[in-house]
Specification:
Elements: H1 2-18, E1 28-30, H2 31-37, H3 41-50, E2 61-66, E3 71-77
Antiparallel strand pairs: 1-2, 2-3
Length: 108
């Protein structure tokens, strides 16, 4: 009986640990951030298709997160690169290349 309880507990732990995380509603995310967050390849492809954008890996695109199930919509393609601003901050498209960007720069 005790062995069954231990095995059941381990299975629950492994199942929840392997689950992909969803984005936080109302936040902006780089495609590269979403790909690190969870299984977003198909979701990014669909968001790009819905917005009429060229199909790419979406790493340098900015997306808006909606709802609790991780639904995203395309916001813009970052001309130079997409910057992950860290947890609890919106990602952004810096204006200018990485050599000229300063940490004080924000989206207009």
């Amino acid at each position: 009986m005790k062995l069954c309880t231990i095995i059941a507990t381990m299975l629950v732990f492994l199942a929840t640990g392997a689950a992909a995380r969803n984005c936080t509603p109302l936040m902006l995310y780089c495609g590269s951030t979403l790909l690190k967050t969870g299984n977003y390849e198909d979701t990014i492809t669909e968001a790009l298709r819905e917005a009429g954008q060229p199909e790419t890996d979406g790493r340098d695109d900015l997306f808006h997160c909606h709802g609790v199930k991780g639904h995203i919509t395309f916001v813009e393609h970052c001309e130079y690169w997409c910057k992950n601003q860290g947890t609890a901050f919106n990602d952004m498209c810096p204006r200018g290349n990485k050599d000229t960007w300063t940490s004080e720069e924000t989206l207009p």
